[in-house]
Design a protein that fits this description.
Elements lengths: L1 E2 L1 H7 L5 H8 L3 H8 L7 H11 L3 H4 E2 L5
Antiparallel strand pairs: 1-2
Length: 67
Amino acid sequence: MSNRLKIARVVNGDLTQEQLANEVGCSRQTINSIEKGRFVPSVELVLRITRRLGVRVEEVFFLEEEV
């Protein structure tokens, strides 16, 4: 799974990783790992993040197209 979380985080509120993490109930390290593609978040966390940012899930999280 790929994501545009960093872009969405900055564009939709100019939030730091720490601020977003506090607002969605996870650690800053989790947000960092998601942004770097090292951690795939649960559906619940994806929904909390996208709800907080005011965006659709598909705008931030997506599957790589298979070639």
